[in-house]
Amino acid sequence: MQNPAGNGEPAAPPYADSAAPDSLRDEALAAAGAVAAHVRNVTATAKTEAELSLASMVSIVAVAIISLLLVVTAWLCLVAAAIWWAVENGLSVGAALLMAGAVHLAVVLMLLFWSKSLLRNIGFARTRRLVFPGPEKTE
After folding, report:
1. Which of the four pLDDT bands, split at 50, 70 and 90, describes residue 114?
2. Are residues 25 and 73 in the same domain?
3. Does residue 97 lie within any of the structural domains?
4. Residue 64 reports pLDDT greater than 80
5. Is 1 part of any domain?
6. CA-to-CA distance for 132 and 79, rounded, in angstroms?
7. Could you tell me the pLDDT band of residue 4, with boundaries at 50, 70 and 90?
8. Phi, psi of 10 (to 5 degrees)
9. Of the candidates 7, 25, 28, 5, which has an alpha carbon nearest to the alpha carbon of residue 15?
10. In a shared domain, residues 68 and 116
11. In this predicted structure, what is the pLDDT of residue 103?
12. Burial letters 28-44, b for 16+ CB under 10 A, else e
């Protein structure tokens, strides 16, 4: 680029003093430092949140196990009370236990059939058909 004065000399760079390149370098270093600080901040936050999530998940699992044990204990108490009531009302102990077992098996079978009817909802079948459309089935 030629000097605007028209004397044929090359024009001076826009940053004529020597402080300008250093200030650009300093600004670039400051920006890089700010980016690095931000990345460290985000990383530290993510680490803290991961630790908090893990601690919360462990607590939830512990509470679920304790709740399950309490529900099972309560159910056993109800079954024992029903058997005791049946024995007090003239049923033999063996017959009361057989009746409790039969009732439990009947409930388990009903729950099994109900859960089998729910299996078709697992696996996102409708969503898969929307995302990966295939040939139409005619039945």
Report:
1. very high
2. yes
3. yes
4. yes
5. no
6. 50
7. low
8. -65, 145
9. 25
10. no
11. 95
12. eeeeeeeeeeeeeeeee
Residue 15 has pLDDT above 90, yes or no: no
Q: Are residues 111 and 65 in the same domain?
A: no
- Residue spans of alpha helices (H) in 4-92: 19-88
Average pLDDT, the chain: 85
The mean pLDDT value for 43-52 works out to: 91
> Identity (one letter) of the amino acid at 85?
W
Q: Into how many domains does the chain fold?
A: 2
Contacts by 50-57, CB closer than 8 A, 24 or more apart:
none
CA distance linking residue 87 with residue 85, whole number of Å: 5
d(CA 8, CA 49): 65
The type of residue at 19 is A
Range of the structural domain that residue 29 is part of: 21-77
Q: Residue 103's closest CA among 74, 77, 83?
A: 83
Same domain, 70 and 98: no
Q: Is residue 13 part of a domain?
A: no
For residue 73, being part of any structural domain is answered with: yes
Residue carrying structure tokens 């908090």: 52
